[in-house]
Fold:
Amino acid sequence: MELKSFYMAFTLYSLIQTAILCTNAIAVLHEERFLSKFGWGVDHGVGGFGDDPGIKAQILTLIRSVRTVMRVPLIIVNSACIVLLLLFG
Amino acid sequence: MDLPHQGYRATKPRARAAPPTADSVLFDDTSSAAPAMNSQGYYTPGYNMAGPSNNMQGGAGPDLFADPMANAAMMYGSSLANQGKDMVNKEISRFMSVNKLKYFFAVDTRYVLKKLMILMFPYTHQDWEVRYHRDTPLTPRQDVNAPDLYIPTMAFITYILLAGMALGIQKRFSPEVLGLCASTALVWVIIEVLVMLLSLYLLTVHSDLSTFDLIAYSGYKYVGMIFTVLCGLLFGSDGYYVALAWSSCALMFFIVRSLKMKILPSLSPDSMVTGSSAKPQFRLYITVATAVFQPIIIYWLTSHLVR
Structure:
């Protein structure tokens, strides 16, 4: 295929792959064993209620909410990916 | 779904109709059968009112059929199709509000021409404020500064066609390449919108930029891309670089001026600056980063088309 000029051509499938990999990466960040060592644990996130939370609190909230929401769908999607990759290479 | 399209085509000759009534600013004449309604009850009553007329139209036609069975079958089939349409509408309106989407497509010819001129030459445009009407933003028909999704969609499709044409001129065309070009451009739009959303969320910028607004603003770069590719095809490599510089500067100016109104808050005198003092800096960084990203992506997506 003469696609040497498209040196970073994306397909929608690669976008789906990226999304799955990134969500998996966020989902494996365990709070007690890993994040607490950096001072990013459960107790460090909830900060000031009066003013806007800072960047670190926002990131921690995002990580925690992604882990809570995407846990079950990720199990399903990962299982489907494993089966499909085993069957079709 | 051809009903909204019929209504949409019918609006174009009536673009300069009477001014909107008091409670239905957005959707007064986009349905050929429905009178002016308020925006909440727009979609379903408008559709229901036009539904029976569709049925009646379908019923009047097959009277020409001699076979009564064919008449009955046609009416049954049309009622089934209407039921299917209702179900599809209900499912779609669970994911995204169709009313909000209709706001972005409520454009007319005058708006499109003015907006294209502003995109290509924004230096003389004075007033960049988005005007409001009792808390709801005005439609693009009434306010030139309002973002719309019509221009980005059309520009995206035109860009794909132009890319196919450019590749065909260089004898590098094949149908897979066209699909690849389309999905690459789409993926870049999605990446840019996601990065913008993430940065706006992380820095707790309380702006009223919705997802569709961001899609609109990041789709305006396709107009610049079309202009650049056309100049590159017509005038060769020099024309390409000149057009690239021109449309980059125009687009950067446009993005900075438009987003400045929305992201960088007008610090009202009674509310103190909340949060850390680094906030206004970060908002400025976001705006500038978005602006700088546009020429990069224009160059990235068009340089292989013009050799």
Remarks:
- Residues 128 and 258 of chain B are 7 Å apart (CA to CA).
